[in-house]
Structure formats: structure tokens, C-alpha cells
Amino acid sequence: MLGHSHATSGALAWAGAAAALPLSILTFPVAQAGHIGTVDLVMGTFLTAGAALLPDADHPSGTISHVLGPVSHAACKVISEVSGGHRHATHSFAFVIAVTAGTWAGEHWLHRWFTLALVFFLLALAVRALNLCPPGDGIRSYGTIVILAGAGTFAMDQWISDKPSWLPFAVGLGSLAHLAGDCLTDRGCRLFWPFKLRTRIPLVDRTGNKLETWILSPLFVLGTCALLWYTIIHHP
Ligand SMILES: [Zn+2]
Q1: What is the DSSP code (8-state) at residue 211?
Q2: How far is CA 124 from CA 23, 78, 128, in A?
Q3: Distance, CA 23 to ligand 1 centroid (Å)?
Q4: Neighbour tally for 214: CB within 10 Å
Q5: What does DSSP assign to residue 215?
Q6: What confidence tens digit (pLDDT) does each residue in 157-186 have?
Q7: How high does pLDDT run on average in the chain?
Q8: Distance in Å, CA 5 to ligand 1 centroid
Q9: What gap in Å lies between CA 37 and CA 23, rounded to an integer?
Q10: Lesser CB count within 10 Å: N end or C end of the chain?
Q11: How far, in Å, from the CA of 178 to the mean position of ligand 1?
């Protein structure tokens, strides 16, 4: 699947979860009786969109690898080696649990700096995947990503709490949406890694097809907007 399909499916999953699930699930594992306001809902939408790119950290030529130039490329190469190649360890339920727990732990032990760094990184991924920057590998592309993600982080810094209780959920949900998308392709995913079983329901025949760009992604965006609107109207 293409980066923008993953990102928009992540946004849709977040909006759907916010509309359908009780607050205690959204804020798990903190499970505080807090309030998720409209601003949190909107921030969560962008951050879940970015998180939906995370599993492809095992892909040295994927979206995530090109997000911050040579730095992210080198990191993706290492992750690819360690995780056993594309669509192995990072495309499993174990990975979803690891990133969810990692976000929770980072928020709790490293506090606000961790939260803001994660916000910046997830926004950078979303900017890249949604093609909001010039294409290619040049400094124009990275520069635009850094400026847009930096501006977004600066804006969120005004509103986001030190330890947003919904952030671990958003990161896990984004990764889960990615796995669901990849399971619809020919190659499938090893959801139960380290077991060898491969899960696949091949509906999308080839990555990069027009169906994703002109039908799937626009529908996901429309669905996200509709669900957010519904949630904001019904849970003010
Ligand atoms: Zn993938």
C-alpha cells in the first residue's frame, strides 16, 4: 500500500475509534476519567495518521526512510537488519504492543520532551505520507518536512498535555491500521511473529495503483471528517 493510504486509514481509524469507543478505552493504559476535548481529537487525527507509517520502519526505501534524510534512512536500515527484513517483526501484534507500551513509558519517564519529540516525528511522517512536501530526496523536501512538522509541534505545544493519556492508544491504533492495510495485499503480514504464519486477504492487487490514490484515500479523508464532526457534535 502507498504511504498516503496508510496515513489516511490511520486517521480514519482514530476518528472511528473516537466515535465508537468509550473514553476509558481511548485513554488505556492510563484509564483516567479525563476529558478528550475537540483539540485532542484533532491532534490525535494527525498523530495517528503519522503513526500508521511506523511499521514500515523496516523498509530502507519506504516513506518513513525518506522522512528526515540520511538520518532516517540509516535508522531504517538498522531496523530492517534487526527485525529480519521487510514485513517481519514490525508487521506484527508484538510490534503494536511494543510501540504502545513504549509511548506510555516514554511519556511517564521522559515527560514532556518525549511527548514533543514524538509529536514532531509523527507529524513529519504524516507530512511526507500525505505529500504535503515537494517529492524526492533533496534538501527542499526535508526542509519543508522539518518546517511543517516543527510548526505543527509548536502549535500542539500550546494545547497538548505533558502526558496525553490518548497518545499511546493513537500510536498503537495507527500501527494496527497499517497492518490491516498490508494484510489486504498479496504479501500479507506475519501478524503473529515470531511464528511463521502469514495473514493475507488479497483485495488490493498491487501497491501504487490508481484505486488507492483516487478512490480509497479520498474516501478515507471524507470518512474521517464525517466521523470527527459526528463525535464533536455528540460529545461536546
Ligand atoms: Zn507495511
Answers
A1: I
A2: 27, 20, 6
A3: 29
A4: 10
A5: I
A6: 998 988 888 999 999 999 999 999 999 888
A7: 88
A8: 11
A9: 11
A10: C
A11: 6
Query: Residue 59 C-alpha to ligand 1 middle, in angstroms?
Result: 8
Extract the C-alpha cell encoding 6: 496508510
Q: Which of 58, 62, 101 is nearest to 83 (CA)?
A: 58
Query: By mean pLDDT, which of 50-59, 70-79, 166-175 is the weakest?
Result: 70-79
pLDDT in tens, 204-226: 766 557 888 888 899 999 999 99
CA of 218 to the centre of ligand 1 (A): 20
Domain that holds residue 119: 3-234
Distance 27 CA to ligand 1 centre (A): 26
> CA dist 183 to 9, 80, 93, 139, Å?
13, 19, 13, 34
* Beta carbons of 61 and 11 less than 8 angstroms apart: no
* 68 grid coordinates: 528526515
Q: Measure 1 CA to ligand 1 centroid, in angstroms.
A: 7
Say how far apart CA 171 and CA 105 lie, in whole Å: 13
pLDDT value of residue 127? 94
Taking the centre of ligand 1 as the mean of its atom positions, its distance from the CA of residue 114, in whole angstroms, is 25
